[in-house]
Amino acid sequence: MKSPLDEQIPSHAHFDRIKPSDATHWTKSYVITAYLSNIEEYEKIIQAEELQNFVIDSVHLCKPGRKDNCDTKGCMPGESKTLFGKEMKGLCRGDLYGTMTTWFVNPSDNELRHIKRLLELEMQARK
Asked: Does residue 52 lie in a domain region?
C-alpha cells in the first residue's frame, strides 16, 4: 500500500541525495550522521585504508536558499577546510557541535563497515 507521504519528499537536506527513482524512497530511508570532530588526528590512517573518497563523498555542504539550517541558523556560507590535501569550501558546521558533518544516506553493508571504522578512529582520537 502506498503512503500519502511517498509523494512528499521533505525539504530537509538529508533527502537531497535520494533520487525519486531509487528503489528506497525517502519513507524507507535512513541517515547516519557522524561528527568527525578530530578527523585531522587520523586523516593519514583514512588515506592508508583508502577511505578518503568515502568520507569526501559524504561531507555535508551548506546550500544557499535552503529553509532549514543553512540559512535560518546562520551556517551559511559554511567553512573552508583542507581535507586529505584538498581544499573544501562550504562545509556545514553541524547542527549541534559546530563541527564538520558527514551524512551517510542508506548505507550498504560495505559502507556500514567503513562507517564503523570511522567511528572507531573518532572514538580513539577523543580519548
From this structure: yes
Identity of residue 16: D
26-44: pLDDT as tens digits: 566 777 888 888 899 999 9
Instruction: List all residues 6 or more positions away from 17 whose beta carbon is below 8 Å from its beta carbon.
Output: 103, 105
In a domain, 103, yes or no: yes
Q: How confident is the model at residue 6 (pLDDT cuts 50, 70, 90)?
A: very low
Say what the pTM is. 0.71
**Domain span including residue 107:** 25-126
For CA atoms 53, 39, 98, 96, give the dihedral sign: positive
The residue behind cell 578512529 is 121
